[in-house]
Write a structure and sequence with these properties.
The protein is mainly alpha-helical and 223 residues long. The chain has seven helices and four strands; from the N terminus they run ββαααββαααα. The strands form two sheets. The chain has a two-stranded antiparallel ribbon with strand order 1-2. The termini are far apart.
């Protein structure tokens, strides 16, 4: 007598009776196993997807416009706490050190791992350095603008005879010299295993710093 078990034909010898309830129970158990196996696979895949997502979030870099200024402000705060005050000479050194430190962070990030932009696309080391260069350029322009505005205010009040245009333009050169000097120091420190620290480099001439420091606008804007 032919019957079907889970869609497979089975031929029973004459005289044998099949317990249909037993067959139904067996079929139900097999179906439960399939459901359990499918659910287990889904849970496993969800877990893997979560791990992938968390790893991507961990390796996502948010390029903040405040990252450079925050680094520079932190260094100047330490200088003020140590010396009681700071001048343009300190600002120039702080900016050079900030650039080198942020550059070192970029290199460290991209040594062995892939990082991403906030839109999920890959972020390269070159793109991060390009962003850092742009931030440094904006910082230099901002410093020059602040010095120029302060000088114009002092000239208007009669405290100085004219705006120190030459000194302000030379200030830009000093900032880029500081960047190059601290990058050289970074590469040397990397080879020697020494930490990258603030130096007392002098870029430009003392006359420039004397003129700019008399503008008296630093404490109000870099804290």
């Amino acid at each position: 007598m032919p019957i079907s078990i889970l869609n497979y034909p089975v031929h029973l010898q004459e005289g044998l009776k099949l317990n249909r309830e037993c067959l139904k129970s067996q079929g139900s158990q097999n179906e439960d196993r399939k459901v359990f196996h499918r659910d287990s696979l889904e849970v496993s895949q969800l877990s893997k997807n979560r791990e992938i997502l968390m790893d991507k979030i961990k390796h996502t870099v948010v390029q903040s416009a405040a990252s450079f200024s925050d680094m520079r402000a932190g260094i100047l705060k330490e200088i003020r706490e140590e010396k009681g005050q700071y001048g343009y000479h300190d600002v120039v050194n702080a900016c050079g050190l900030s650039y080198a430190r942020l550059y070192s962070e970029i290199e460290l990030r991209h040594e062995n791992e892939q990082y991403y932009k906030t839109d999920g696309t890959p972020l390269t080391k070159e793109e991060e350095i390009e962003w850092l260069d742009m931030q440094y350029g904006q910082e230099v322009e901002w410093q020059k603008s602040c010095a120029r505005i302060a000088a114009q205010g002092q000239a208007f009040q009669g405290n100085i005879s004219e705006t120190p245009t030459k000194e302000i333009e030379k200030l830009e050169d000093a900032f880029y010299q500081a960047r190059d000097a601290y990058m050289k120091l970074y590469h040397e420190s990397k080879q020697d295993g020494r930490p990258l620290a603030l130096q007392n480099f002098v870029f430009g001439n003392s006359r420039m710093y004397e003129v700019l420091d008399r503008l008296g606008n630093l404490q109000e804007r870099v804290e």
